[in-house]
Amino acid sequence: MKLGLQLGYWQKHPTPRFIELAQIAERIGFDSVWTAEAYGSDCFTPLAAIAAHTSRIRLGTGVMQISARTPVCAAMSALTLDHISNGRLLLGVGVSGPQVVEGWYGQPFTRPLERTREWLEIFRKVIAREEPVAFQGAQYQLPCTDGLGLGKPLKSITEPLRKHIPVLLGAEGAKNVALAAERFDGWLPIFCSPYKMHIFDDSLAAARPGFEIAAMVNFGVDDDLQRALLPGKWTMA
User: Fold this and answer.
1) Beta-carbon count within 10 A of 215 CB
2) Phi, psi for 65 (deg, rounded to 5)
3) How far apart (Å, rounded) are the C-alpha atoms in residues 105 and 145?
4) What are the tens digits of pLDDT across the range 12-65?
5) What is the pLDDT, as a whole number, of residue 31?
6) What is the pTM of this model?
7) What confidence tens digit (pLDDT) does each residue in 160-198 have?
8) Half-sphere exposure of residue 106, counting CA atoms within 13 Å on the CB side?
9) Residues with Cβ < 8 Å from 102, sequence gap 6 or more?
10) Can you spell out the DSSP letters for 67-121?
């Protein structure tokens, strides 16, 4: 088992001491530090700052919302941060939910599994940088088909540090978890119990060797058990 520090996303103000917390986690042997985004702070910028002040700890997005960025835009950010951090990026992604996707990003929350599959395929093409990127799917078209007709397939100007950046999928439902096992490098579960992991056996059947499961666990230190459980109860409610 490896330990990671989840910094989450900023609330009304930036998370205090987030760089110092990451440095402490690295110093005491944590494997990774994670940032998130909802509809305020983004997940990449804090990781870039942390990358500049650490040297070993892996840097994870948990999660980057795929509706926030086209797959090419996400690949550009991932490629850049992977260089800055000397190959420490773990890209955790997820579809978010209809309230955020339709209300904040102004995109329809339809066919999320299809969108996720297409998103990943394009992302990996960009990072591999083996040929100009062309893709004609139901959710994404490169070049686009409804513009001036002047677009052409392009290849990233910048060579990637790694031709394969690990991508983990935040997933809850059985089909989404199965998609993580089939096509992604890992799974970011939420609201799962270590005592009932067998319910995911069928969904995870296709997972390959090296598949990472990075489960987020709320952790509290308190002499009073009931008081320590209270924030978790509020979240569940």
Assistant:
1) 14
2) -85, 125
3) 22
4) 999 999 999 999 999 999 999 999 999 999 999 999 999 999 999 999 999 999
5) 98
6) 0.94
7) 999 999 999 999 999 999 999 999 999 999 888 889 999
8) 0
9) 108, 109
10) GGS-HHHHHHHHHHHHHHTTS-EEEEEE---HHHHHHTS------HHHHHHHHHH
Q: Helix, strand or coil for residue 185?
A: coil
End-to-end CA distance of the chain: 29
Mean pLDDT, the chain, integer: 96
β-strand pairing of 141-142 with 135-136: antiparallel
CA dist., res. 154 & res. 113, Å (int): 26
What residues pair up with 154 in beta bridges, in sequence order?
133
Q: How far apart are CA 152 and CA 133, in angstroms?
A: 9
Can you tell me which residue has the tokens 């955790």? Answer: 92
Q: How many CB atoms lie within 10 A of CB 14?
A: 10
